[in-house]
Amino acid sequence: MGRVSLGILASGRGSNFQAIVDEIEAGKLNASVKLLIVDNAGAYARERAKRHSIEHLFLDAEGFPTKEEFFSRISEEFRKRGVQLVVLAGFMRVVRRPLLDAFPLRIMNIHPALLPCFPGLHGQKQAVEYGVKLSGCTVHFVDEGMDTGPIIIQAAVPLAPDDTEESLSERILELEHKIFPEAIRLFSEGRLKVEGRVVRITGHRVNGEAIVNPPLS
Ligand code: GRF
What we know:
Bound molecules: 5-O-phosphono-beta-D-ribofuranosylamine
Strand order of the largest sheet: 3-2-1-4-5-6-7-10
Largest sheet: 8 strands, mixed
Number of strands: 10
Shape: globular
Structural class: alpha/beta
Strand content: 15-25%
Number of helices: 6
CATH class of the largest domain: Alpha Beta
Distance between the termini: 39 Å
């Protein structure tokens, strides 16, 4: 596919957005960010965009008569700039039809748990409270459900007995910053084949990537 044009959606801190920009600037990811849209005026992601001279836009969902119109506007802004892949980098909303229809299997999200476990908010807290021994993060294509789309890459994190939501979140975030750019790289190399809800990665022996950090001994 060559250089892939990205449209990023974020609501907050934007560390995943930063990780993607860093990989691009290091020449490790053949992509360019055409536009960052935030739905929260105070999102720190905007500061990051400014620092890297990336075009950014704040759209207030409350200013649109319906959520559908909000998402139509987003898709219009991305299309105008030739966006090929939409990246949800900490975007705290369920994506509605107009955007899904404009970018079928062209929207990726990162979730801080091993889906289908613990979808929705506070995946790390849910994992700690449930007492699972492994959690992690998932990059998936977005469909109309809540964190239900075809899974592209997952990375696992073993839980320590004294883990808290904060300590687990920190370790998971480290891996988020690795697998999100990696998923975009695979997309840009045309290596993601979606069959039903299964994503096959061409050139991989296993169906996807498995990273466990720290390794299980
Ligand atoms: C991350 O934990 C991500 O998995 C979730 O929202 C958080 C966003 O963090 N979807 P950041 O804004 O990228 O720092």
